[in-house]
């Protein structure tokens, strides 16, 4: 006789009769053991990568679709014919760009009158595609009053009232913009605006072609220095935003060529009668930001050579496109090494 819970005596055989408890237990557990063995075999056979999630926690985001924009040069550089502006707008719209950026509304010899400003706005506002205007130096910097004195600041403020009354572009189809004037500290600088398309940041900066309106006369260059501070804050904001959002590229539109893409050994003061280079501060800042930026920076100005074939010139990740009096269309293919190219040229 054995007590309850006692082990069988050494050498005793378990009861293997068909109706015994040990035999029934083996028949019940055998299928589960088979399932467990099969599951373990599948786990061992599966590749290790399947058990480890991809970096970033999911599939990579698809790059934005390719698109293009058009940039108009300054059609009034050597003429006063409004038909040049009308034709440029019409032809640029035929390419069906995402938007158009135009530089300049008048020739230096034309009057700086409210009537002319309103007339040119009507032309620009008739663009079927969204149109962003960047003022040229001839639109305000050279203006004088009836006494022959400079009227630049007053005329610049009037331009802002006529062409930048809200946070929308010009054109039949409007495009929302963010203006520097939304910042209380820089409420006057409505001509500086930015917008985003396809993961690329676009922005305008008021940098006129007359040596950035730096005056060689003795005394304080109040307009130049105040605008320099505003542009410095604007550039800092743009690059910081592009870096934080990991944007592929930045396109900056200016009237004057700041020559940020030119090697340091080049004589940057050539062509200027002033002793000081008015573009030096902004050029230094753009270069400094571009060196720290992982994407590409394209500078577009209206100082192109009408006799030379248009091209984008690169210096590291900093490129420059000069547009003459006509217009150029820039193609953007996100997710590619070249990113920017002229639409009618072979991609590099």
Describe the structure.
The protein contains six helices and twelve strands. By secondary structure, it is α/β, with parallel strands linked by helices. The protein has a single domain (67-342), classed as 4-Layer Sandwich (Purple Acid Phosphatase, chain A, domain 2). The strands form two sheets. Strands 4-5-6-7-8-10-9 form a seven-stranded mixed beta sheet, covered by helices on one side. It has a five-stranded mixed beta sheet with strand order 3-2-1-11-12. The longest helix is centred in the N-terminal third of the chain and has 25 residues, at 21-45.
Brief synopsis:
The protein has 348 residues and is of the alpha/beta class. The chain has helices spanning 21-45, 82-94, 114-125, 152-163, 222-244, 280-292; strands spanning 67-72, 100-103, 131-134, 178-179, 193-197, 200-204, 249-253, 296-301, 312-315, 318-322, 327-332, 340-342.
């Amino acid at each position: 006789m054995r007590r309850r819970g006692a082990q069988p005596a050494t050498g005793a055989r378990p009861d293997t009769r068909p109706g015994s408890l040990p035999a029934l237990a083996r028949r019940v557990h055998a299928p589960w053991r088979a399932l467990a063995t099969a599951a373990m075999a599948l786990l061992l056979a599966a590749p290790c990568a399947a058990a480890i999630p991809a970096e970033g926690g999911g599939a990579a985001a698809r790059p934005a679709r390719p698109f293009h924009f058009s940039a108009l040069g300054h059609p009034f550089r050597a003429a006063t014919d409004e038909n040049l502006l009308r034709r440029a707008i019409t032809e640029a719209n035929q390419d069906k760009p995402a938007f158009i950026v135009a530089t300049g509304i008048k020739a230096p010899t034309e009057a700086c009158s409210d009537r002319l400003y309103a007339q040119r706005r009507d032309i620009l506002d008739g663009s079927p595609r969204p149109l962003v205007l960047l003022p040229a130096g001839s639109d305000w910097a050279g203006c004088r009053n009836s006494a022959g004195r400079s009227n630049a600041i007053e005329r610049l403020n009037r331009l802002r009232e006529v062409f930048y009354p809200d946070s929308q572009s010009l054109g039949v189809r409007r495009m929302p913009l963010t203006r520097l004037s939304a910042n209380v500290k820089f409420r006057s600088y409505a001509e500086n605006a930015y917008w985003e398309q396809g993961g690329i940041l676009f922005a305008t900066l008021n940098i006129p072609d007359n040596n950035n309106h730096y005056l060689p006369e003795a005394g304080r260059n109040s307009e130049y220095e105040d605008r320099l501070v505003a542009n410095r804050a604007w550039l800092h904001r743009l690059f910081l935003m592009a870096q934080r959002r990991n944007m592929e590229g930045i396109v900056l539109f200016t009237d004057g060529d700041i020559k940020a893409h030119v090697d340091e050994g080049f004589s940057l003061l050539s062509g200027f009668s002033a002793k000081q280079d008015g573009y030096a501060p902004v050029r230094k800042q753009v270069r400094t930001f571009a060196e720290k930026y992982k994407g590409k920076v394209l500078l577009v100005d209206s100082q192109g050579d009408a006799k030379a074939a248009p091209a984008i010139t690169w210096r590291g990740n900093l490129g420059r496109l000069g547009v003459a009096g006509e217009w150029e269309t820039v193609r953007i293919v996100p997710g590619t090494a070249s990113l920017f190219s002229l639409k009618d040229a072979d991609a590099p």
